[in-house]
Write the structure tokens for this entry.
Amino acid sequence: MGIKVHPIGFRIGINKNWNSRWVAKNQKQTTQWLVEDDKIRKYFINKQNKYQVDHVEIERFENRIDIFVHAGQSGLLVGKDGENLKHIELAISKIVGRKTKLNINVVQLKCPSWSARVIAREIADSIEKRVSFRTAQKAAIRKVMDSRALGIKTRVSGRLNGVEMAREEGYLQGTIAFSTIRSDIDFAIEEAYTTSGIIGVKVWINRGEIFQKGLNNQIVPPDVKQLENNPRRRYSHNDKTKGEKK
């Protein structure tokens, strides 16, 4: 079930919230807003991936749209004196229409190493730079486990190393509880464009378990200073973090 069911969609409404939050008046408006939301997300994830964009949340009203961009490099995304953000607002306004009031809020990721999309993008970028797919996956796994995540699973598929027959290979380290709903599993898919073709990259990251009810409960990432002092330390049952039993 863990492979066939989307890990994030499986937990929406339980411990994960919807990325698009709005109610349309009719079917025509629903179709229009769905297409616009897809274009907005593709713009940030494809064109702004150098800023480590994790996900984009969209809230719509009749004449207003609020966009929350969760990025690891939030300062670079905003730019000096907000210059880069102005160009982004101009591009988004062409998608949603100039009559719609647009508010873009950039949210800093507390721990980019816990983002499956950021890690998948790093693996894809390494493969595009002709780094061995095994080396790229092992480096990503080492980075995630050093950030005190409970587990990570990676998988790459395609014409690996330019061979004629496509295949898939992956690694698993730690614990990945796919069927446990209270587990905070992050999942992402990215693509690496090589001379031999497209190589797909999938990443699953287990951040921990959430026992409290509510869609806004999240596990607090580890302190960066603590990781610098002891980067190999892992979570233990005695660690007290938000969303876990004490």
Summary: Residues 231-246 have pLDDT under 50 and may be disordered.
